[in-house]
Amino acid sequence: MPSNLLKPRLDPEVEPLAARRLERAIDRAARALVSSQRPDGHWIFELEADATISAEYILLQHFLGTPPAAALEAKIAAYLRRNQGVHGGWPLFHGGAFDLSASVKAYFALKVIGDPDDAPHMTRARELIRLHGGAGESNVFTRFLLALYGASSWNAAPVMPIEIMYLPRWFPAHLSKISYWARTVLVPLLVLRSLKPVARNPRGTRIDELFVSERRRILRRGPHQKWRWYSLFAALDIGLRIVEPWLPQRYRRRALTRAVAFVTDRLNGEDGLGGIFPAMANALMMFHALGYGEDHPHVITARKAIDRLLVIDDHQAYCQPCVSPVWDTVLACHALMESGSQVDSVRDGIEWLRKRQVLDVAGDWAHWRPRVRPGGWAFQYSNPHYPDIDDTAVVVMALDRYLRDIGSSDALPLREAIERGKEWVLGLQSRNGGWGAFDADNTKEYLNHIPFADHGALLDPPTEDVTARGISMLAQLGDAPDTAPVAAAIQFLRRTQRADGSWFGRWGMNYIYGTWSALCALRAAGVAPGAHEIRQAAQWLASIQNFDGGWGEDGESYTLDYDGHRPGTSTPSQTAWALLGLMAAGESGEPVERGITYLIKTQEAGGVWPEERYTATGFPRVFFLRYHGYAKYFPLWALARYRSVKSGVYPQRLGM
Predict the structure, then answer these.
(1) CA angle 327-350-336, nearest 5°?
(2) Global pTM?
(3) Is the Cβ–Cβ distance between 345 and 40 less than 8 Å?
(4) pLDDT at position 53, please?
(5) Closest-CA residue to 260 (of 240, 285, 241)
């Protein structure tokens, strides 16, 4: 296959040692990345959350009365014990502070598995949980789980009548007005709350010792929730508790039928409802509560979807929140194209991606944009009702770069995929010029103040990082900065830039991720390196560089009272983002060189980088992620980009 891909090199006469080290680091990283590619062309790396998902997996199986095999339980127990923090509880990310709800679930799961109450690790956790108010002070999802086990009253969880399924679209709390992840988690939960099943709990495990007081009828206000809004909705909750028993049963039965139909229509085969563990687990418990037998096709399918999330090795096992093959594959392709090598691997990855485009399902996003044709990509292997804008924009840019830099003997299918992807992304742009991840104009902020939303992530509003990806895609495809969609999106970024020059990162941790994304977008759209917003952002990135030359930031930067960057331990992926952002801003001096030196020094002999810390975000403040692939492709990308910059061939037209 003909290739136009350039592989720039530093001048060995000018920088002989630096050039050799850089070339060696790039080559080792590229070969390591290719070695993990699957035979059909895609990449998939582990996606790890905190201890709660694995704890919930154990509790789910015991709810159903089907405990996992003893060997698997022992491995999950080993994982839970290993992730216990030095403080005695369980954090939401590596090295993080104690989290009450995560600790309650992890303790409960270990006790279900068989860890004795008086074991030192259980004693430490129990004392810390009680010190923080006990299990009764847990978040909404934990209190629902406790109610399912009979450990807490259903009155301790918010009222959510299943009659919600009847609400018309104009109603303030219609399902289409909340995020996709909330939708898929909530609907089967409505059925569970209506039927109020009790866990089979074959070992009869109880956790009464985690409750400080017998009083368990509480609602918990989230830290983001304002008293005025919360008080209004809490009063409504009280009214619903009075009214709910008097609602006609025939309407309840019909609403239940609607809820079950919603779930089964989106069951998504062995890829699972919504492609995410909490929705899959609720669906399986829903089928159990409805009396479906173990041999029912829906039960079999739902079980397989959940079990496919398990990661099992010789010593431990854990459950992933979802899988990330499209995201891993497209980012690996970008990194390899930047490196100018491994053309065959890129070709196979691009072809695998092309076949994953969703072209024939109008998902939930069509509630509000019915005239937009499907054309996006999902995050998982299959999730046709819920493609996402971030993945789609990055895939479109990869397909476009592949055609430009490498070429194809059959370019038409790729061009058609690019056009449909662009059309779909444009169709999902919100009225304020930005993009959310899965829906347009998902901005009914009052909903984040209902008692159910104590996690503060009921919505999917436009964010800086996803908006930047939309700009990057359009700019790379040749749309001028004065076209209406691009101009509106650029204004969105200008409005949301913080006073210190940074941008918030919704899906990556945090301001480093958002600032990298925004800088690449603005530069791709033609904003000059000397523009105020570019200079301010570049200066901010340089100012937060760590002493070792790297960059780092952890989940604490999502606190509501954020008042300036608090540097975290350097990580390879966050260092790569900072470097890519600085180079997009036209920087190549000392901060960039120190960052490149950090990456070269921390690369392992096998070509990859160690990275235990969490650098991605599920829900700010409450749920964080560790992509095991981030340290495999982002540092390669940054090193290869640096080589291009130093060679004078920085690819200005690229969106990333």
Answers:
(1) 75
(2) 0.94
(3) no
(4) 98
(5) 285
Strands (DSSP E) found in 276-360:
310-312, 317-319
**Which residues touch 520 (CB under 8 Å, ≥6 apart)?**
468, 472, 580, 581, 584, 655, 656
Chain position carrying tokens 């582990």: 46
Q: Residue 533 has which token pair?
A: 């917003």
pLDDT digits (tens, 9 = 90+) for 366-386: 999 999 999 999 999 999 999
For the chain, give me the number of helices (H) and strands (E)? Answer: 22, 5
The answer to whether the Cα torsion of 181, 185, 190, 193 is positive or negative is negative
Task: Flag whether pLDDT at 12 surpasses 60.
Answer: no
Task: Tell me what the mean pLDDT of segment 428-445 comes to.
Answer: 96
In the numeric block, which tokens belong to residue 592? 């960039």
One fold for 16-45+324-428+463-646 and 48-319: yes
Is the per-residue pLDDT at 1 higher than 70?
no
**Rounded CA gap, 262 and 3, in Å?**
48
Q: Is 17 left (phi over 0), alpha (psi -120 to 50) or beta?
A: alpha
222 pLDDT band, cuts 50/70/90, is low
Check: CB of residue 224 under 8 Å from CB of residue 560: yes
Specify the DSSP element, H or E, that contains 520: helix 511-524
- End-to-end CA gap in the chain: 25
Q: Which residues have a Cβ under 8 Å from the Cβ of 142 and sit 6 or more positions away?
A: 101, 104, 105, 135
> Which has the closest alpha carbon to 469: 413, 431, 507?
507
Contacts of 228 (CB under 8 A, 6+ apart): none
> Do residues 188 and 280 make contact, with C-beta atoms less than 8 angstroms apart?
no
Confidence of residue 213 (pLDDT cuts 50, 70, 90): confident
Instruction: Break the chain into its structural domains and give their ranges.
Output: 16-45+324-428+463-646, 48-319
460 forms beta bridges with: 442
Band (pLDDT 50/70/90 cuts) for residue 647 is confident
Q: What integer pLDDT is reported at residue 2 of this predicted model? A: 35
Q: Just list the catalytic residues.
A: 390
CATH topology of domain 16-45+324-428+463-646: Glycosyltransferase (1.50.10)
Q: At what angle do helices 511-524 and 464-476 cross, to 10 degrees?
A: 20
pLDDT attached to residue 5 = 44
Characterize 106-137 residue by residue with b for buried, 16 or more Cβ atoms within 10 angstroms of its Cβ, and e for exposed.
bbbbbbbbebeeeeeebebbbebbeebebbbb
Would you tell me how many other CB atoms lie within 10 Å of the CB of residue 46?
14
Structure tokens at 253: 């039965």
* Candidate CATH numbers 3.40.50.720, 3.40.50.300, 1.50.10.20, 2.10.109.10; the one for domain 48-319: 1.50.10.20
Contact 184, 458 (CB under 8 A): no
* Span 509-547, pLDDT tens digits: 999 999 999 999 999 999 999 999 999 999 999 999 999
Which of 522, 637, 524, 510 lies closest to 568 in space, CA to CA? Answer: 510
Q: What integer pLDDT is reported at residue 99 of this predicted model?
A: 96
The count of C-alpha atoms lying within 13 angstroms of the C-alpha of 532, restricted to the half-sphere facing its C-beta, is 6
Provide Rg for the chain, Cα atoms.
25
Mean pLDDT of 573-589: 96
- pLDDT, one tens digit per residue, over 136-152 is 889 989 999 999 999 98
The CA distance from 457 to 461, in Å, is 10
Encoded tokens for 121: 């690790």
Q: What is the three-class DSSP state of 248?
A: coil
Q: What is the helix, strand, coil percentage profile of the chain, to 5?
A: 55, 5, 40
Sequence-distant (≥ 6) Cβ neighbours of residue 170 within 8 angstroms: none
CA distance 189 to 284: 11
pLDDT of the residue at 219: 64
